[in-house]
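Dear all,

This email documents one entry for the complex benchmark we are building for the journal club exercise. For each entry we list the sequence lines for every component of the assembly. Then comes the predicted three-dimensional structure of the complex as a token string, followed by one or two observations. Please use this as the template for your own entries, and keep the labels exactly as they appear.
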Amino acid sequence: MSRIHGKKGDVLIDPTGGATPTSLASTDSWDLDLAKDRVDVTCFQDTNKQSVLGLPSYSGSMTGCWDSATTPEQLFAVIFGDVAAMLHLVPNTLEPTFLFKGLANIDGAISVSAKGAVTWSSKFDAAGNWVMEPAIIP
Amino acid sequence: MSVADVAAVDAALVAVLAGDAALAALLPDGVYLDVAPADKTRFAIVQQQTHEDTEGFRAPLYETFRYRVTARVLETTGVDANAAAFRIHQLLQDAALAAAGYAHMTTLRVDRIKLTEVDQVDNDIRWQLAGGDYEIFVSPI
């Protein structure tokens, strides 16, 4: 495969936290932040600051348009609930085996303007161990 | 994936205007896309200005059309052109629009148009133009 456009991206969600996620309708973007904690370990006689790495955060965000037929049930029910949902973040549905997945604590927001479409946005962080598939061997 | 024919929105907009008896009384020569036939003196013109697709994963989310809709009347004053522009606004502003292949979201005026043009052939003739720029939001179904 080659470099790809984001048009074929996808977000799949299983509100129960199970292993059967379905596509989250009317979604147009997702982001995943894998930033790791840095712990400062700079000591006497060091000539520069030094740090050691912690674990990646696996937090991120999603955006889309409000559709009353799907958004309340698929997304906002999860936001209002207490169950961590299973998320699958797919860069390209033409290569659906390449994805990031894991349990997520999901927050949300809705934006309504008299000058445009009603949209939602959502932030999440990891509620369990996340993985990238297929796994790469370092 | 949902795709729809954008020309359906053009046709729907013209149909709404052309089907109104009150507007027809003010503009008896009809409603046209882009240009009217020769020798017409009281008509409406619908011109697409811009179009934007807002893409989503798996399917387009919605499309935004901007049309300039103007009443054009050969007269010295702008009384009839203004009256036609008001009727156009009543017909379009936040009103339903049935375009095949689309679910209508809303129609909103974003700019008012009012000007007087001197006829390019006969400089004694004045054309009164009145109307507005309308944004139409539709979602492919």
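Observations: The longest strand of chain A covers residues 99-111. The helical segments of chain A are 71-80.
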